[in-house]
């Protein structure tokens, strides 16, 4: 990607992408997100480079005279500059550098581990359930399913309501930005009892609910 961009802009390709000098070789420093050869004088650089800010950087290109065309009155004026704006070039180079760094980071990723951090008690007297979950990597996406149904995209927390009495099984699996999916989904099994609570409200220190017999129960 970076090579194609450099070719399209008509520039010389810089060194490896970097965020800090620690990403470069011992003889290089990170300048404008690229590893550049460190130097003390321009004689240490290539013929098309100069030593600036302690690094070998491309020499500024000399402007070429603009072609002239006659206007309706016979006067000459310069052709409009059709180069890309500097800001657009910088943004494109930055995006390509970030993509190259992200791709290098993704190459060393392993499938994530999924963890359920909160779920209903077993047994539970409620006909609803709330689950919280996460993974051991950044930028994970998740899929959930209940009682062996199809996997569906989900986010934490996940709420299920109107659950029938009996044994229930919740599963969740994470995928990382390299599209690697946890081969061992996290699971939580519990039993829903017949004395369902039909309404719940959480406070700072406890939770209260009303069951179908109009009895209020609090816990926490």
Written account of the structure:
13% of the residues lie in helices and 39% in strands. The chain is rod-shaped. Strand 1 (28-31) and strand 2 form a beta hairpin. It is mainly beta and 220 residues long. It contains two helices and 16 strands. The longest helix has 21 residues, at 86-106. Strands 8, 10, 11, 13, 14, 15 and 16 form a seven-stranded mixed beta sheet that branches.
Shape: rod-shaped
Number of helices: 2
Rg estimate, integer Å = 31 Å
Give the beta-strand count.
16
Mean pLDDT: 78
Q: Indicate the percent of residues in helices.
A: 10-25%
Order of helices and strands: HEEEEEEHEEEEEEEEEE
Roughly how many Å apart are the termini?
55 Å
| Biggest sheet descriptor | 7 strands, mixed
Portion in strands: 35-45%
Question: Would you spell out the secondary-structure blueprint of this structure?
Answer:
Blueprint: H1 2-9, E1 28-31, E2 34-37, E3 49-52, E4 55-58, E5 68-70, E6 76-78, H2 86-106, E7 114-118, E8 124-126, E9 129-135, E10 141-146, E11 152-154, E12 158-160, E13 166-175, E14 186-202, E15 207-211, E16 216-219
Parallel strand pairs: 8-14
Antiparallel strand pairs: 1-2, 3-4, 5-6, 7-9, 9-12, 10-11, 10-13, 13-14, 14-15, 15-16
Helix pairs in contact: 1-2
Keywords:
single chain, 220 residues, mainly beta, 7-stranded mixed β-sheet, 3-stranded antiparallel β-sheet, rod-shaped, disordered N terminus
Offer a quick outline of the entry:
This protein has about 220 residues and is mostly beta strands. The chain has helices spanning about 1-10, 85-105, and strands at about 30, 35, 50, 55-60, 70, 75-80, 115-120, 125, 130-135, 140-145, 150-155, 160, 165-175, 185-200, 205-210, 215-220.
